[in-house]
């Protein structure tokens, strides 16, 4: 699994857990709709730390909380 896939899956899980819409996440995080669509459908090939921080903020989480999931285990990711 790529890092991009892992981030998109983490977003999907958190949206369900927090009963939040993608639109609300966009509003809370400051990430524009087009950019979020690229993240969620796999067209985004690179992530910056700033983007991940914005996502965490949108979920009202710390960066550590956002990344604290087995989906981000190094051995499970294709790191380029």
Task: Summarize the model shown.
With 80 residues, the protein is mainly alpha-helical. It has helices at residues 3-17, 22-29, 33-40, 49-58, 63-67. The chain contains 5 helices and no strands.
Can you characterise this structure?
This protein has 80 residues and is mostly helical. It is built from 5 helices and no strands. The chain has one domain: lambda repressor-like DNA-binding domains (434 Repressor (Amino-terminal Domain), Orthogonal Bundle). The model has no long low-confidence stretch (mean pLDDT 93).
Q: How would you spell out the order of helices and strands?
A: HHHHH
Residue stretches low in confidence (pLDDT < 50, at least 5 long) are none
Share in helix: 55-70%
Beta-strand residue fraction: under 5%
The number of helical segments is 5
What is the number of domains?
1
Average pLDDT over all residues: 93
**Biggest sheet architecture:** none
- In CATH, the homologous superfamily goes by the name lambda repressor-like DNA-binding domains
Helix-and-strand structural type? mainly alpha
Question: What is the correct CATH architecture?
Answer: Orthogonal Bundle
Q: Distance between the terminal alpha carbons, to the nearest Å?
A: 11 Å
> How many runs of DSSP E, i.e. beta strands?
0
- The coarse overall form would be globular
Keywords:
80 residues, mainly alpha, 5 helices
